[in-house]
Every structure is written in C-alpha cells, then in structure tokens.
Amino acid sequence: MTVRATGRWRGIVAVALFFVAVGVLTDRPATLLVGVVGAAMAAYPRLSRAPTVELELERRLGDRRPARGEPVTVTARVTNVGDRTLADCRIVDGVPAMLSVAEGSPRHAAVLRPGETTEFSYAVGTEPGRHQFDPATVIARDITGAHEVETTVAAGTEIQCADAVPELPVRAQPDGHAGRLVTDEGGSGIEFHSVREYRPGDPMGRIDSKRWARTGELTTVEFREERPTSVCLLVDARAPAYRAEADDRPNAVAHCLAGVEQLISALSETRDAVGLAAFGRELCFRAPGVGSDHETVLWQLLATHPAFDATPPGHVRAGGGTDSEDAGLDQQATLLRKQLGSDTQVVVLSPLSDERIVETVRTLAAAGHTTTVISPDVTADGSPGQRLARRERAERVRALRGADVPVVDWDPATPLGTVLLDEGRRRWSA
Amino acid sequence: MVRVSVDHRPTPLASALALLLCALSTAILAPTLDQRVVIVTALLGVGLVVAGGRESEAPIPQGRLWTVLGAVLVLGAVLRGETMADPRHSIELVPGLVGMALLGLGVRPLRQRFARRFVSAGLAAMVVGVALVGIFEAAGPLRLLGATAAAIAAWDVAEHGISLGEQLRTDAETRSVELLHTGTTSAYGAATVAVALVVYENGATGLSLSALVLLLAAAITLLALLYR
What we know:
The structure holds two protein chains of two kinds.
Chain A: E1 2-5, H1 12-26, H2 29-43, E2 55-61, E3 72-80, E4 86-94, E5 101-103, E6 107-112, E7 117-124, E8 129-132, E9 134-141, E10 147-153, E11 158-161, E12 181-197, H3 209-215, E13 219-227, E14 230-236, H4 252-267, E15 273-279, E16 284-289, H5 292-304, H6 323-339, E17 345-349, H7 355-366, E18 371-376, H8 384-402, E19 407-410, H9 416-428
Parallel strand pairs in A: 14-15, 14-17, 17-18, 18-19
Antiparallel strand pairs in A: 1-10, 2-3, 3-7, 4-6, 4-9, 5-7, 8-11, 9-10, 12-13, 15-16
Helix pairs in contact in A: 1-2, 6-7
Chain B: H1 12-29, H2 33-54, H3 60-82, H4 87-107, H5 115-137, H6 141-168, H7 175-202, H8 209-227
Helix pairs in contact in B: 1-2, 1-4, 1-6, 2-3, 2-4, 3-4, 4-5, 5-6, 6-7
C-alpha cells in the first residue's frame, strides 16, 4: 500500500497571495477579502486525511471453461468492508496478461459507503490455455483529491480455455523406465522392433510361438521400448525477455508463461515427470516430479513466484543489461545445472532476445542435458531497428540449430499445440 | 488483430461541469444581458471545440467541421466582448472568455501532456479577470468572492477529470465520483464565500484596512509555512 500526497491544491496558495497583494497595492478591501476565499480553498485539503482502504473483491465469470475465441463476461464486485466512506475509489481489474478486453472497460470508479458494493462487468477475448487474473489495483483518493492511496486487492480467479492438444517434443534419450517415449532399443513395448535368438530368461510371452511350431527354433520377439522422461520447463524471464511486438501486445514472457501452462496441463496427463525453472528476478527451480500434489505445487509457483511475473521489472537498461545482470544469469545457470538431474531434458522457453541466453542454452546442451528451445516470435518489421532485431533472432535460431539444439519457432498468433503438432510431424516423427 | 488506440482524455462529465462552472464564474462578474448572451455563445463554441476533438468514431471532416465552427463562435464572442460600448463591460467579460477557452483546450485536450497547464492557465486568466474587476470597478465583495470560488471549483473539477481520464480512460464508469467531487468542492466554495461575507458585513467594516491586511498576511504566511 502506498500513500502519497498529490499536491494538486498547492497552486491555490498563489491565487490567495495574488489577491492579497492586489488588494493591498490598490487599496481595495473587497479584493483583499478574495484572498480569504483563496486561503480557505488552499486549506481545503487539510480538512481530510488519506482514506483507509479495506476492500473485498469477487469476480464472476460467464463461463469458466470457454471455447477458443469465445468472449467471456467478467463481473467484478468490490465491497467496502472498512468503516469509512471511500469518496473516490478507482479500480483497475487485473486482466490476465494474455487476454485482451473485448467489450466494456475493466476500469471503474465509484463512491463506496461502508458495506456498499459496486459492480462492473466487461468481456475478455479468450486465448488457449489457463489464465490467472492478477490482483486488481485500487487507487482511493480522499474527497479533496489531495491524498491518494494505492493498493491491490486480490481474488484468485482463472479462465481455462481448451486448446489443440500440445504434445511436448521429448527427444530420444538413453536409459529409463516404461513410458511414452518410444526408443530405438528392443525390449517390452507395443511396436515391433526385431526378432532375435532366444536367450534363457526371456519371458515366455515374447517367444515367437509360430516360428517355433514351424521350425522348432526358439526365437524372441523384441518390441520398441517406451520410457517416461523427466522434463524441466525453463522460462527465460530476464529483463531483456520482456519484449513485445507493440506496446499494447502481450510480451514474450507472457507468451512463454501461457506456453508453460499449456505444457504442464498436457504433461500432467502423461507419466512424464515435469519440473519448472526460471531465470529472471531470481532463480526458480522445482525438480521434476509426478502426481497431483506436485502439479499443484507447480501451479502455485507459476501464480506466485516473483520470477513468473508477466510484467517487466522496474526498468530495462538500454543495451540489454549490464555486467552484474550477466553475472546473475551465469550464476543462475550454474545453480540450475547443479540441481538438474543428469537425465532430465530441458525445454527452454525464450524469445531469444539476446546472445546470453543462447550461450546458456548451449552450455546446458554441452553439459549433457537434452535441450529443446521453444521460442515465441515477438519481433516486428516496422522500423529498421525492429528488422535488425528480427534478423538477429533468426541468426540465434540458426546458431542453436547448428549446435544441434532443435528450436521451435512459435508465432504466438498460432496456438502452441498446433505449432508443436506440425513440428512433431516434420521433425520428431519416427 | 485489432489495434485499439488508448483514450486517456479527461472524462466528459467532469469536462462539461468544469466548463459550466467557468461560465458561471464569468457570468457572476458580468451581469448585463448582452454579456450573458456573449458568455453563452462562447460556452457553446468551446463545447463544440471540445466535442469535435473527441468524436473519434465520426468521420474526420465532421469532427473538424464542429471544431472550426466552435472556434469561430469563441473568436466571435471574444471580439464582441472586446467591442462592448462600455469598456468596463469588456474588462468584466474578456478575461473570463479567454479562461474558458483555455480550460476548453485543456479538457479537449489539445496535447495530453499540456492538459493540466492549459487548465491552470485558464484559472489564471479568470483570476486576473476578477482582480481587474476588483481594481477598476471597486466591485462589491459578493461578485468577486463568488466568481473566484466558481473559478477555483472549475479548475478543481477539470483537474479531477484529467486524473480520472489518465487512470481509468474515458470508457470507464466514473459518473458518481465526478458528481460527488464537483458537488463537494462547489459546496465548500459556497460555504467559504458565505462565511467570508458574514465576517465582512458584521465585523471587518469597523476594522481599518491596514489591520485587515496584517491579519490576512499573518494567516497566509501561516498557510505558506504549513505547505512547505
């Protein structure tokens, strides 16, 4: 909560002084008297204090699980639970970063007596994925407008929008247990792999009985082994990653977070272990795991951890960072490598907006982690600078692919699921 | 992909109320029928300029047309005010009209960054008008006090509308807040005028001007110190 003085009445002191001066110099008592009104107006803000803000927020959604593209009506109800009247209460609802307002306004101002409730509604367009509302920002001014209190009021609300099934591109990897990753090694599974000579100890069910009946030879059928994987989703949320196509478009980190939410939803339906990590304000790391408890923890991390904030940190320095920030990234990457299990695949979500992240990804890959990059493309081609940024990003994508790290180039206008399915057909098909 | 241009203009209701208060302030200073007609003309003109600048959905020529028509009306009113038969009538009228025009440019606004400066300039013009009437006509306290209070209230309401527009945009529902704010400021202004008049009628007439000056100077010094 911030309390500040707006100082808007300060200039009126000058009006009072002006009238007094004019009245004295020209010997006009009536003009002098106007100075009294000026002084009284200048003292007006002294009559009230900064309001105490105690509010409760409740949001109702027209449809909690809408179909893609269908606008959802959001009705917000704000109740004054304090015991003082809020004469000038301005509310800006925390619309999820990925959603745009389709109709009405998520902003509202009202006079709230104690116990009174005000209600406003607006509609948001839906994008695939799970979207959490941010806390609403409240700015309460006293009746004179001289004091202003800024605070937030939260209500956990989320919209879930169905999407084409995103299938995470897990890559081939040695060793593991039964799961959905189809390997090139023979063993137990579903898909035929090869036939080999019987070795004592082979399970009876895998003996090719027809061949035995025909020739009397004992052979064993091998299937392609299927294993689960352990995946760590790594979000690049450093200051340089908060880039957007235009001022009113979601930034790349918001796209990455939406992507992560979709991937977690998709992976939780498989037996793969999912972990979560982020570079940014601070390193966030949660080791891969399975089960609904683990999933809950992941959702909580996404909602509350400072690294997963879709709004950029205070200021972004020109030039994309300073030495200390670079050191921060190196430190975070080293810490992450220490914590990551050696058989964990890493899926990096990054707009690839600078060279540092490319180096970090290559270091990860070189350390033996099977690494894939999903990169939302938020570059534009309006100005020469934007075209240069686009060209640089293309170079980085090429460099990563050259280093044997697959990069999924994701245009955020297309749902991530569709992009991954296409990509899978092209690249990861067996 | 729809690109929506963000509209951070001052809220319409507060803008309209501020202009009305401004007209009221000028009308208190200028009592004759001729002057009142000029004030209403100017108010109409400023209203058209403000509305013409806001009409974002109307085709551009139409918005421009209203703006030009409004500007012509305002200029005509100012010229008419300048050429009044009695020069004192001009003194009463012209600063108020200029103040109204400046306030109108502030809430239109001509430039987002300068909205507050235009509104302050409008208040300054109106204050100068009140001072001129006080000097050249030795007018009674009621007119001067009323006009000043209305001018300050107009400035306050306009500034409130600008801050609401900045924080909530024009499409938000803000009417109750604007009405309460306008009502409270106006009521406080009226009460101040009443108290000042009562004190002036009953007590201060016996006091010499120099004693009054000393008292007021002391009060204002105190005020200035408090604000430091």
